[in-house]
Amino acid sequence: MNDFTLDELNTLIAVFEKAGISDDGSVEALMFSRVKTAQAERAELESMDFDDCLGGGCKL
C-alpha cells in the first residue's frame, strides 16, 4: 500500500490552502476534503500508543 506520510499529507493541505480551494462541491474541494480526512486519521494513528491496545483495549 502506498499511503502518504503525515508530513506529506500536511504538505498537501498547505498547498490546497494556498490555492484557496473553497468548499463549493468542485472536484478540487472534494479532494481537499478527502486529504483532510486522511490527515486526521493518520495523525490519530501516529499518536496512538500501541501498548494501550494490549488485551483488546482498542480496535484498529
TrEMBL record:
Descriptive protein name: Uncharacterized protein
Organism of this sequence: Amphritea opalescens
